[in-house]
Amino acid sequence: MFSLNGVGTTLYGKTKINKEDGSYTATKWFVLLYLPIIPLGSYRVIKGEKQYKSNGSETQYSMRIIKLDVAQVIRTYCFAYGSIIGLFLITYYFHQPYILIAGIILLLVLV
After folding, report:
1. How many domains does the chain have?
2. CA 97 from chain center: how many Å?
3. Which of 4-13, 43-52, 94-103 has the highest mean predicted lDDT (pLDDT)?
4. Beta bridge partners of 76
5. Would you say 57 and 35 are in contact if contact means Cβ atoms under 8 Å apart?
6. Cα separation, 33 vs 51, whole angstroms
7. Whole domain around residue 89: which residue ranges?
């Protein structure tokens, strides 16, 4: 995964969590301004061993491609674009543009 200034690819979603090994399903997206545009595939993300280095530790993950999780794609679209539409409607109703700005900042933090 790689994105620069919100353009590139990233994983969104964390469903079907396996309590035994901590693995979960996530979908890889092409994003533009951090917004999901095109789903590129779903993956089973499996947490690996923690590796200790001189500057700290990092956990390695492995990804196994699976069938596209359509339900997760729909939920991601609904969350991202539904939130934006809701922000515009609230801004229009209250006539306060700072609500839109605060909402967009909040969405960027949540993503």
Report:
1. 1
2. 26
3. 4-13
4. none
5. no
6. 32
7. 3-110
**Alpha-carbon span 30 to 23, nearest angstrom:** 22
Strands 35-53 vs 56-66: parallel, antiparallel or unpaired: antiparallel
Sign of the dihedral defined by the CA atoms of residues 69, 13, 20, 61, in that order: positive
* 8 A C-beta contact, residue 63 and residue 43: yes
- DSSP β-bridge partners for residue 46: 62
Three-state DSSP class for residue 1: coil
Task: In whole angstroms, give the CA distance from residue 63 to residue 93.
Answer: 44
Q: What is the CA radius of gyration of the chain?
A: 17
Residue 107 one-letter amino acid: L
Question: Is the pTM for the entire model greater than 0.90?
Answer: no
Helix (H, G, I), strand (E, B) or coil at 80: helix
State whether the Cα torsion 59-69-31-17 is positive or negative.
Answer: negative
pLDDT at site 111:
59
